[in-house]
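quick one before i forget lol
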Amino acid sequence: MSRQVANRIVKPILSKTPEEARKGVTALYRNFYRELDWTMRQHMMDVPIAAARKRLKEEFLKNKDITDIRMIDMLVIKGQMTFDEFHNYWMQNYNIYAFFDYTDTQHKKTAEKDNTFLDNFYKSSD
């Protein structure tokens, strides 16, 4: 008994060809890259712009192996929604910080917490 594989023709979401999907991804990346500096200043984030751009690149490279055009389109739509949330102040600062694992500022704050008066006192008595 042979097994038949059904080929289903699905309706495209945004792109009909891989080139169109690639253009959508590069346009979204370009929009985020341009908007990132302004957004970080307007939200008064203490994350350096270079670190934010590095994190943006990591987020896009995480999905580089996806080849399904419909999946790429869905990710572009989700990315556009996130971009609109950034730009229109719908996303609060703590939501933006969630994109960054552990920033330099948090390292400094942790170091400051470890060097409180009582910590130094307890260390000196050892």
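fyi The helical segments are 18-42, 49-61, 69-87, 93-97, 104-114, 117-124.
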